[in-house]
Amino acid sequence: AMLRLRLLTWDVKDTLLRLRQPVGHSYAAAARARGLRAQPEALDRAFREAYGAQSRRLPNYGRGQGVSSRQWWLDVVRQTFVLAGVPDGAALAEQLYRDYCGPHTWEQLPGAADTLSRCRQRGFRMGVVSNFDNRLESILSGCDLRHHFDFVLTSETAGAAKPDGRIFEEALRLGGVPPAQAAHVGDDYTRDYRAARAVGMHSFLLRTAGQCPEPEVPPKHVLPSLSHLLTLIEK
């Protein structure tokens, strides 16, 4: 039977937008432009370490712990250069924080704009549910996707990060629909697929090539690409 959906919510990173190049490459390029010697691979490893440590110490960008998300990120960037042994790299933190706001850092996944347009044309309410800081509005605008959405809900704004059900409940409140009339689209089994289903929403898992399949996901909930979504919804 056709799903009686009225609201679609969307993850952003690696669902609608992805980084044009790995973090280590961007950081290394910025460093080299300042005449600093930097290895992309070392910076990649250092970033994962710094980001992981900061996330454990101050979850959800320090929300509720008196730290701004801007400060949270500046610390991560500085610590990345320290761990990678790039002296004076910390001076690049402000620039890199701004760079990650811009469309030259991000690109749309195949089918993103087209799928969003077609969903809008069919009259769905549309929202973003993303573990992201408050730069997401300007990133979506810069990448020409913001106009597809009725609301953009970040974990920073919501004060809860996926898989916490509260961020989905807030999205349902903003969308004005009960969970059974909403579906979430994302690429992460735990944070997107399972978390949305836990609050009673429908959910679709975008599975790009090379990901290992999670056994619990019925094939009719799996999207090999974004363009498959409308076919599944309209069955």
pLDDT averaged residue by residue? 94
Number of domains: 2
What do we call the CATH homologous superfamily of the largest domain?
HAD superfamily/HAD-like
Poorly predicted runs of 5 or more residues = none
Backbone CA Rg: 19 Å
Give a short account of the largest sheet: 6 strands, parallel
State the share of residues found in helices, binned by percent: 40-55%
CATH domain class of the largest domain: Alpha Beta
Work out the number of β strands: 8
What is the global morphology? globular
User: Can you count the helices?
Assistant: 10
**Order of strands side by side in the largest beta sheet?**
5-4-1-6-7-8
Structural class: alpha/beta
Percentage of residues in strands: 5-15%
Walkthrough of the structure:
With 235 residues, the chain is α/β, with parallel strands linked by helices. The chain folds into 2 domains: 7-16 and 109-231, HAD superfamily/HAD-like (Rossmann fold, 3-Layer(aba) Sandwich); 23-105, Haloacid dehalogenase-like hydrolase (DNA polymerase, domain 1). It is 42% helix and 14% strand. It contains 10 helices and 8 strands. It has helices at 23-33, 40-57, 69-83, 93-99, 112-121, 136-142, 155-158, 165-175, 189-198, 228-233; strands spanning 7-10, 17-19, 106-108, 125-130, 151-154, 182-186, 202-206, 222-223. It has a 6-stranded parallel β-sheet with strand order 5-4-1-6-7-8. A two-stranded antiparallel ribbon has the order 2-3. α9 (189-198) links the parallel β6 (182-186) and β7 (202-206). α2 packs across α3 (69-83) and α3 packs across α4 (93-99). It is globular, with a radius of gyration of 19 Å. The termini are close together. 39% of the residues are buried. The mean pLDDT is 94.
